[in-house]
Amino acid sequence: METQDELLSNLNSYIFYGKLDNLEQLSIYTDADFWSFIKKGLYSQQEDRDMSSISDTLLKGFNYVSTMSRHATFYDQRWNFLYFWMGEKVLNILKNTSEFSNIMNTAKLIRNYFDKSYTENDDIYEITAEEFPKLKKIHDYVQNYATIKNKFTQFDFKCTQDFSKYIQEGYDAYNNLKSNCNEGDISCKAFNVIVKSESNENLSKIECKHFKAASMVPARSPTMELDRSSGFQTIPGENDQQFAEHGQNLTEDSHSPSSIFIGIALPSLGIIFILFFLYKFTPLRSLLHTRLKEKIKIGSDVLEEMEETHGLLDDTYEHINTEHDMNTHHLSYYPL
Question: What InterPro entries is this protein classified in (predicted)?
């Protein structure tokens, strides 16, 4: 379940399935007999199927989910995620779809071995190959609903065409099965388990009204895990890797000195180019020259006025001093 759409790639189901698809080889040190039994079952050859082509991938996924930390995000939903992840891969190689439920019982065996207390989703393992795609679409939509809804609270949020199509198809599948649910059907029982797992009994329809072009999927950090409400969360787990960080768009080189220099230099060069263009090819040049001449003339006039004022002050000062000297020399002395 891969996508090149950034909005879709940040949804919970895409992150979980992507994690399972890209696991490195995990060595199995405990429960060796049990895993040997599971592996032999997956490798069994029959005319209508060849599980050996996906058995290694499935084993890594089984091991990862069965050893997840209790504190890991999606811990409570891990068995349902594992089931639908496995089911999609099995359907892609299965020729005789009547065997689907029997093969998928492997996921139930693993769940019961590692988590005997969890029996809420037993009905899911009885789903037929015909019902599976519809229920998987509903399951994933329910798991992603909170994140999708949260995106629409962001200022100026815009959808891509693939994102809009995804939420439309997800809601239609959810609404159709809900409207035609027969309580006695396995698909209806499984549907109720799926919806109950997220406590979302009534999901409202969400529609995209503003669109943008799809962007590339960014590189993800292997040490971060996405919070179910589309926030950020780091979870210490027992597994070698954790989920990717939501929105991890920058690589390690994003803040290198060269990138910082370019980020500063390019805007400056742009401003210089614009100013040069305006000066060279617009009336701005003549306007600046005219203003400059006016300022020079005004400055010259002011200087002349200051010199004249200074001269007047000097004359006045000399005149005052002369009168003072004259008054001093004409003082008479009268003896007592």
Answer: Plasmodium_Vir
